[in-house]
Amino acid sequence: MTFAVDVTVRGYELDTQGHLNQAVYLQYAEHARWELLRAAGLSQEKLLASGVGPVALEVTVRFARELRGGDQVRVTCRFVYGQGKTFQVVQQILKDDGTLAAEISGVAGMLDLSTRRLIADPRAHLAALADDPDLLSG
What we know:
By secondary structure, the chain is α+β, with helices and mostly antiparallel strands. It has one domain (3-132): Hotdog Thioesterase (Thiol Ester Dehydrase, Chain A). 23% of the residues lie in helices and 38% in strands. Strands 1, 2, 3, 4, 5 and 6 form a 6-stranded antiparallel beta sheet that branches. A hairpin with a 4-residue loop joins strand 4 and strand 5 (100-112).
């Protein structure tokens, strides 16, 4: 399932050329990831209480179109699980007309906060904690 959150590009996020600063794309992606977890019933507090936290291991941004102040965008987020300790995070930032502004892809895991190691099955762990585990299925 692909989750999405809407964001308005704010003036203070622009660079000297008048378009969205490249680092802010990553902030929008992070916001969408946390909103996905929250919508599934996994607040930061709940994750920390369970002894785990999400960790980004690799992130790639491919810029397609510029964004300007006032633009309305939709930031999507989907977790794609395989075997092992990591999973893919697939995201897009879409302009209000559906035009692709950026693609963000990454590798993530769930960190055991006591051992500081990735847990073995992040999908099962998140699903067991979630109120709505279907939101977490890619």
